[in-house]
Amino acid sequence: MTNLGSLGIWRASTQVDGAFAAKAERLGYGAVWLGGSPGGDLAIADELLEATETLQVATGILNIWQDTPASAAKAFHRIEQAHPGRFLLGIGAGHREATAEYRSPYQALVDYLDALAAEGVPSDRIVLAALGPKVLRLAADRTAGAHPYLTTPEHTRRAREILGAGPLLAPEQKVVLDADDTRGRETGRKTVKFYLGLRNYVANLQRLGYEDADVASPGSDRLIDALAVHGDGDVVAAGVQAHLDAGADHVVVQALGEDPWPALEAIAQRLL
């Protein structure tokens, strides 16, 4: 398994380049996670790795409905040959509403993992986008671990219990560096409300105790405050630290707003 360090950055693959990766590395972040279902040959991973020396690059996540196991394996082996030990293949089943060819996500993941194994991709260089207990157990049994998205420290605590002590647990956490409570919450809500129309995320939030009124779009204040921590540097850093305290090995920070760097710098100053 790659050495991710304690903190990483989640960013859409269309919003990063070599300069972004180099700055992340200078600040002490261990990884950049390529979000937004990056697909194809993952050439952006090469660009980020070539611009850095120790930074890890992970997909967060490659959508199994959009890329075949053969194409994912081809990209993995190319990147691994050029940058040994610095790439982690995160895969997931996405969500039902956005995928025409959706079938049982669990069985589809099992089949995809079988195919990756047949293509020679090591299981300890794969992570699963896992929310519920069944896929978390699959992540523990068949891969390096889990990359839960849109979760809370309580989910991290429960996920660690299911995974056990060994597997990687790398949850994503959204943050907004804004001391204005109303404005910061609304910045978070603009991003979070999209996911409240997707059943897999809503079901997971309900398992965590959020009620219908909380998860109804655009989301209650209580829900938004948990999923997109907003405040000054101490507050957003504490929101990230809460996942580490709950059992995460590595927290993937998604900084919302026009410029991610003030939040990422504030967190790095306090936690790295």
From TrEMBL:
Keywords: Oxidoreductase. It is an enzyme of class 1 (oxidoreductase). Its EC number is 1.-.-.-. The keyword rRNA-binding does not apply. It holds the Pfam family Bac_luciferase. One of its GO terms (molecular function) is oxidoreductase activity, acting on paired donors, with incorporation or reduction of molecular oxygen. It comes from the Bacteria. Residues 19-116 form the Luciferase-like domain. NCBIfam families: F420_MSMEG_4141. This is LLM class F420-dependent oxidoreductase.
